[in-house]
Amino acid sequence: MPYVYGFNNPMRFIDPDGMNPDDIIIGGDQKFRMIAFYDLQKLTSEKLVLLNTGVVTAANKVEKGDEIEFTGDVDMDRNGNAVEKKADTALVADLMKHDEQNNTDVTILPTTGEDKTVNTYGTNSTVYYNYTISNGKDAPGFPIINVDGTSGARLFIFLGHELVHSQQFKHQTYDNSIIQGYKDVDSGLLNAMTKSEYEARQKENEIRGEQNIKLRKMAPLP
Fold it and tell me: Residues 10, 128, 174, CA angle at the centre, nearest 5°?
C-alpha cells in the first residue's frame, strides 16, 4: 500500500505545520521512540531533541512552544569537548537539512524482522528498525561478519546503515543493480550484492571507525 503522509502515522505524528520538509520522524510506542532516539543521538556530535510530534531536531533549533519528549546528550572527551564524529554527524544533519529543492522526510518505525529501508513516495523513506535483538549477530537473516571473524555490532550501527539508504533515496542515488561477480561475505551468495548495499556497507564502516567499533568484513570488488 502506498505511504500517505500523516494518514499512515498516529495523529500525534502529523506535522502541525503541514508537511514540514526534511524531517526525521520517529513513530511507534514510547519505548521504541526512546530507544530509537538515543540510538540516533549516538550517531552525531550535535545535541538532538525529540519533540512530542515525533520530529527530531537540533537542540539549538527548538522554538518557543515546542514540547520536548526526550533530550539527547553528546559524547564528551576528557577535556569536556564533544567527540568529533564527522561522517556520522554529516549523515544525520543531511537528513534533517531543510532544502527547498529536495523536501525529504525519513520516518523510523519498529519491526521484529530484518532492518530495512523502503522508499515510500518521492524521495521520502521509512526505516524499519529492530531494537529487540541483543546485537547484530542475533538479527534475522544472515549474520553480519566482522573483520576479525566475529559477528554482530552495537545496534545503533545498523540504524546508521539504514539511514545511509535513506540518504541514497533523498539524493536519488539508490542503485539496485547487482555487482556481477561479487560474493557477499555474510551470506556467501554470488551475484546478490547491489551497488547501493555495497556503498551503505562502506559508509557503515566509516561510522564504525569513528565509533571505535571493529569494522565489517567486505570482499574487494571484482
Answer: 120
Question: In this structure, what are the phi and psi dihedrals at residue 54, rounded to the nearest 5 degrees?
Answer: 95, -5
**CA pair distance 112, 158, nearest whole angstrom:** 14
Per-residue cell: 124: 521520502
- Name the pTM for this structure: 0.87
In angstroms, the Cα distances linking 196 to 96, 109, 179 are 21, 21, 10
Phi, psi of 183 (to 5 degrees): -105, 120
Q: Is residue 1 scored above 90 in pLDDT?
A: no
Return d(Cα 141, Cα 186) in angstroms, integer: 10
Cβ neighbours of residue 198 closer than 8 Å, sequence gap 6 or more:
179, 182, 218, 221
Distance CA 44, CA 9 (A): 26
The whole-angstrom separation of Cα 136 and Cα 207 is 15
Confidence band (pLDDT; 50, 70, 90) for 34? very high
DSSP H or E segment with residue 180: none
